[in-house]
Amino acid sequence: MYGGGSLGLMGYVSTATAVHGRRVLGIVPSAFKEKNLIGKICGKELKVSTMHERLLKMMEFGDAFIALPGGFGTLEELFLIVS
């Protein structure tokens, strides 16, 4: 399960995971999908309305979390998960 996108590190990890036969679930806010900000999604896609709903779904489906280098949004999600 990941934030849903094929760009940057998130894209490399999700693509490698799918190529090696593992299940991948991309959780994508509809605004990102509509503006094509995420590229191609590998695996299954779960479309959500907001970034907050995306985080809630990630917390619902995830057992553990890994944050790859990113920006302020990555830090925000990480801090919300650990708090």
Layout of SSEs?
Blueprint: H1 8-19, E1 25-29, H2 30-34, E2 44-48, H3 51-61, H4 72-82
Parallel strand pairs: 1-2
Task: Provide a descriptive summary of the structure in words.
This protein has 83 residues and is of the alpha+beta class. Helices cover 47% and strands 12% of the residues. It contains 4 helices and 2 strands. The chain has helices spanning 8-19, 30-34, 51-61, 72-82, and strands at 25-29, 44-48. Helix 2 (30-34) links the parallel strand 1 and strand 2. The longest helix has 12 residues, at 8-19. The protein is globular. The model has no long low-confidence stretch (mean pLDDT 82).
Key words describing this protein structure:
83 residues, 12% strand, globular
- Cα-based radius of gyration, to the nearest Å: 12 Å
Strand order of the largest sheet: 1-2
Order of helices and strands: HEHEHH
- What's the number of helices? 4
- Major sheet description: 2 strands, parallel
Which percent range describes the beta-strand content? 5-15%
Mean pLDDT: 82
Helix content percent band: 40-55%
Can you tell me the overall shape?
globular
What's the assembly state of these chains? single chain
User: Terminal Cα separation, in Å?
Assistant: 20 Å
User: How many extended strands?
Assistant: 2
